[in-house]
C-alpha cells in the first residue's frame, strides 16, 4: 500500500498542474503522510527494518529551524538576533502590551506552510530511501518516472500545437502567460525535465545491446540496430530526443542550459566510472538534437538569448539582475536568522528600487532566497544536507559495478546537479512538484547507490538502524504528526475561508437589518479567525466591522493583532493608521507612511496616504509626497488623478507635482482630456516633448504621434514634431510616411517622394506605400 501511494504521488504531483493550488497541495501532503503511516505502522506483520539514512541529521535540524522561526521570543532577544525582523514589528509595538513576544519570522502563517511543505519533502526522502531498498521497486519506480516524463513531453508538445493557451486542454490560460504542459510557468516544466531526463538516458544506456568490444565500428553500429533489445533501446532514444525537443519548444533559456549541464555531467561521470566514453550514444543524441533543432528552428531560442545582452553597451539586460540587486540588500538586515521561510514576498517591497506593477513572490534565485528567508543558519543547514546526500552518492558511484545501480545513481546525481544549476536563475524548488522530485532524487541517489540486484541476506548496503523497532515507531509518530498538522492547518484555512465567504454573502443580503447584518458578519469572521489563528486577514476584517460599529478601542486592538501576524502588510498598517489618527494624528501619519513603504502595490496606499495629508490641510506636504513618488514611478499618476480633481489642484500645482518627463506630461494630458478639460490637455501636450532628454528609456513613437495629432491642424508645428521624431527614431517608417503626406498635400512632390522612398527602405514589403509612391511618380511625370 505504501509503495502504491508512493507511485501515485509521483504521478499526481506534476500532473496536478505542478501542485500549485491549495487542493493539490493538501492532497499531495496527505498522500505523503498516509504512505509513511502505512509503511511505518508498528503493528504490521512484517519484521521491523529501518535502514540508516544519510544526511538525516542536517535534514531534521533544517526542519527544526523553520519551525523555530515561528516560536515567539522576547523582543529584546529578537532585536539582538534579527534587527530586520525587530524593525518590521517596531511600528506597532507601542500599541501592544510592553511584554509582547514576537517570532523570528515576519509572517508566521507563511513560514508554517513552508515548514509543512519541507517536512513533507523530508518525509518523502526518508520513505524513498526505505522503499527503494528493493531492486524490484527501484526498477519499477525508475521505469515509471521515465514513462511519465516521456508522456508529459509528448502531451505538452501536442497541446502547444493544438491548444496553446491551455493547461493540458483542461484550463484556459491568458495568452502570453508562459505556461507549458501542465505547468503554469514554462521554466518549471523545464526544471522537471532537467531532473527526469537523465533517468530516461540511464534506461536508454541500460538497454543498449552489448556488442563485442573487439568488433569494428561498423559491426557495432549494425548490432545497435539489430541486437537483442534494440527496439526498446531505440524507443528510449527517441523518447530522449522528444524530451529535449520539448524543452526547446518551451523556449526556456535557463532550462536549456541546465539540461545541457545535467547531461554533460552524466556523461562525464559515466566516463570516469567506466573509464571510457560512449561515442555511439553521443552521436545518436547529437543527430537527434540537430533533427529537433531543424524541425523547431533555433531562431526563437536565439532571439531570447539575444535579449539578455545589450549589444550597444555590452551589458546584461535580464530583468532578474535588478531583482537580485535588490534582494541581496535584504541579507544584511536578516543575516543570521533570515526573515522567515516563505516571506520573500513580504520583505522584498521594502528593498525594491525599481518601479513596476508586479508582485515578486520569489527572487528568481533559490540560493539568494534561501539566504533572505533562512539566514546563514538555514543556508548552512540546507547546504549540509545537500552535500551529505551528494557525498554519499559520490562514494558509491565508483564502488559499485552493477550496471543498473551505477546508471540510476548517475541519473539521480545529474538531475540534482542540473536543478541546482537551474536554481541560480529561477525558483524551481518553490514549485511543490519540482521540490518533491528534488527530494525524491536525493532519496533515489542514496537508494540506487546501495541497493543490490543479487543478494542472500540484505537487499541493500545501507546499515540497519541499531534499534529498528524504535526507529520505525519514531518515523510513524512523525508521519502521524505531519498528517494531523496538515489536517489542522489546511483544514482550518479551508473552514475559515468558508466562514469568510458566508460573511461576504451576508453583507450582500439586502433583506437583513444593518445592525443584525454586522453582528452576523462579526460572528462568522470570529469563527474564521479561530480556525486560522495565524492569518491576519480575519482580525483585520473584524476590525473594520468594529470600526463601523463605532467601537474604536476594540477595532484598534484587532488592527494591532492583524499587524503582529503580518507586520509587513501595508493595508493593515494604513487601516490602523487611519483609526489611530483620530486621537493621535502624528502616530497615524507615521503608520500610513510605513504602510505605503511596505505595500506590494503602491497605487491604493499612496492615494490613502496623500488623501489623509490633504484632509488634514497639509497640502504642501501632500504635494511633496506626490512629487517624490510620481518621480519614482510616473505610472502612479493615473490612480492619483481623481485625488487631484477632488482637491482642485491648480495647473501651477500640477506642474510642481508632475515629473519633468515626456511620458508623464502626455499621460496627464490624456487624463485631462478624458475628464473634459481640453485646456489643460492642450497645455501639457504642447510642452511634453521639451523633456525628451530627461527620459531614461528610449523615446516611444506614440509620444510623437500624440503631439503630432494635436498640432496637425497647425501645419508647421506638426511638421516640426515629425522631424524631431525622425531625428530621435530614424527607423520608424510611419514618421516618413506622414511627412510625405504633408509634402504631398503642400504640392512639394519631390520631397514627398523622398520621404516615401525612405519609408520603403525601412518597410520594403509595404504594398500600400509602393502603390502610393508609384502613383505619385506617375503624376510627377505628367506635364
Supply database-style keywords.
783 residues, mainly alpha, two-stranded antiparallel ribbon, two-stranded antiparallel sheet, 36 helices
Fold and architecture overview:
The protein has 36 helices and 6 strands. The protein is mainly alpha-helical. A hairpin with a 3-residue loop joins strand 3 and strand 4. The protein is flat, with a radius of gyration of 32 Å. Mean pLDDT is about 90; it is low at about 310-315.
Gross geometry: flat
**Residues in helix, %:** 55-70%
Structural class: mainly alpha
Taking strands numbered 1, 2, ... along the chain, how are they ordered across the largest sheet?
1-2
Mean pLDDT: 88
Number of helices: 36
For the CA atoms, what is the radius of gyration? 32 Å
Number of strands: 6
User: What is the quaternary state of this protein?
Assistant: single chain
Short description:
This protein is an all-alpha fold.
How is this fold's topology laid out?
Layout (H helix, E strand, L loop, with lengths): L1 H14 L6 H19 L15 H13 L4 E2 H7 L1 H11 L7 E2 L5 H24 L3 H28 L3 E2 L3 E2 L13 H21 L10 H10 L3 H21 L2 H22 L4 H18 L2 H8 L2 E2 L4 E2 L3 H8 L2 H4 L10 H4 L18 H32 L5 H20 L9 H19 L17 H41 L5 H18 L5 H12 L3 H14 L4 H11 L4 H14 L4 H13 L3 H14 L4 H10 L4 H7 L4 H13 L3 H10 L13 H11 L4 H13 L4 H14 L2 H14 L4 H15 L2
Antiparallel strand pairs: 1-2, 3-4, 5-6
Helix pairs in contact: 1-2, 1-7, 2-6, 2-20, 3-6, 3-17, 4-5, 6-19, 6-20, 7-8, 7-10, 8-10, 8-11, 8-18, 8-19, 9-10, 10-12, 11-18, 17-18, 17-19, 18-19, 20-21, 21-22, 22-23, 23-24, 24-25, 24-26, 25-26, 26-27, 30-31, 32-33, 33-34, 34-35, 35-36
